[in-house]
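FW: tagging you since you asked about this chain on Friday. Here's the raw sequence from the shared folder, copied in full. Didn't touch anything.
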Amino acid sequence: MANLIVFIILAVVILGSAVMCVATKRIMRAATFMLFVLFGVAGLYFLLDYTFLGAAQISVYAGGVTMIYVFAIQLVSKRTLQGLVERMKGSRVVWGALATLAGLLTVVLVLLKNLTLFGANALDDVEVPMKSIGHALVGADKFQYVLPFELISVFLLACIIGALVVSRKKED
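HL: got it, structure written out here
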């Protein structure tokens, strides 16, 4: 019963912070709300007894939000940080709502397909050992993740270098 109450509290914090992150006009507030979302997801990992994933969530992603703070201060003008931002156009809101509904419809269809294909209780008693998860994360065979992980790390490195180039002041 306590796990359910903690889950509900974390879900409300995550959903509320995610909505506020998207809805706010100030970049620093958006980054702060995103930080709350990431801490909430880490709380879900800890609730599921995935302590390693929870610690990684806090150290990697919450640390990433700290980097967003730094780059937001360096890259964005002072007027934007004070909340003087451009207004959202109605067409952008409509297209964003349509994209959101399309994503929701896709998730619901995949969920319904898997429930009818495998049944609701087909995977309840299956526990995946940590050793097989570790092999899947660092393996290079089919359905293993070392190549996507390396590509993402190269992409993030390129983003950091690009942000440093953009933030560098021009010398006269």
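FW: The mean pLDDT is 81.
HL: agreed, and The CA atoms of residues 3 and 25 lie 35 Å apart.
FW: great, closing this out.
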